[in-house]
Write a structure and sequence with these properties.
Blueprint (H helix, E strand, L loop, with lengths): L3 H10 L8 E10 L3 H8 L6 E4 L6 H10 L3 E8 L19 H14 L3 E8 L7 H14 L4 E4 L8 H7 L3 E4 L2 E2 L6 H18 L1 E6 L3 H14 L3 E3 L2 H10 L6
Parallel strand pairs: 1-2, 1-8, 1-9, 2-3, 3-4, 4-5, 5-6, 7-8
Helix pairs in contact: 2-3, 4-5, 5-6, 7-8
């Protein structure tokens, strides 16, 4: 028997209860450095979401290509990590910025990529742990465009990005699985299988991968078959579907 919230999710996707088709959401990060691998990722079978880096040589071209292919585009916003300094990522948000600088930089980064529907964090294992930095970041995203959403990539288990986005009034959601922290084919296949298992357990699951050759190979091989049993859903639609099942406030 399907859980009540899952019936609502299936109704949103147009799937019948008899289908029992669950939802997979795939995000491909780090697009912009390579035109060839970027286009290969955007051409994957299914309705996926593409996180594009600001300032990379092919970023705007790939955003336009994804839009033409009717794929969802988000900004892959660089944020300070535990292991890299601001000097290593010159356009990354970092803790040396005051609130005005944060707002200015967030707005500047958002303006660089056309057609975006939302934001997720690139790196950020340090900055996303700091609530007093995450809140002005979320406020700045909302002031730029209140319809944008924030996907917490969860590069740190102590991330407060999701909760701070909620508190700021942004639509938000969190990643479930990283496909390719280990970029070997066997490891990616294992994480891919975990992604499908999470979707079966939860009703939906979000995976993040990168345009690595082995990642694209695993996805090209597996996604067509997964499409027989699961519904692929871009992040904005998954957020909307999950919101449909939230109880109304008393």
């Amino acid at each position: 028997m399907l859980r009540p919230w899952l019936i609502l999710l299936l109704a949103f996707t147009g799937a019948s209860e008899a289908d029992q088709r669950l939802v997979l959401s795939l995000v491909i990060d780090d697009l912009g450095y390579s035109l060839e691998s970027g286009k290969a990722a955007i051409s994957l079978d299914g309705d996926h979401t593409y996180a594009i880096l600001p300032g990379a040589i092919y970023s705007r071209k790939l955003a336009r290509y994804a839009h033409q292919m009717n794929k969802e585009v988000i900004l892959h916003m660089p944020m300070q990590s535990i292991r890299s300094s601001a000097a290593h990522e010159p356009n990354a948000l970092n803790e040396a910025m005051d609130e005005d600088e944060l707002t200015g930089n967030v707005h500047s980064l958002l303006s660089q990529i056309p057609f975006i529907r939302g934001v997720n964090n690139h790196m950020g294992s340090h900055l996303t742990e700091l609530d007093f930095f995450m809140r002005p970041v979320m406020d700045s995203i909302r002031s730029y465009n209140p319809s944008f959403y924030f996907l917490d990539s969860r590069t740190s288990p102590r991330s407060v990005a999701y909760s701070q986005a909620m508190d700021a009034g942004l639509s938000t959601i969190s990643r479930d699985v990283f496909l390719d922290n280990d970029p070997s084919t066997a490891a990616i296949q294992l994480q891919y299988n975990i992604w499908l298992t999470r979707a079966r357990e939860q009703g939906s699951a979000i995976a993040i991968g990168h345009p690595y050759s082995h990642t694209l190979e695993v996805l090209r091989h597996n996604l067509p078959e997964a499409g027989d049993n699961f519904t692929f859903m871009r992040i904005s639609e998954l957020i909307e579907a999950r919101n449909q099942r939230k109880p109304a406030p008393e």
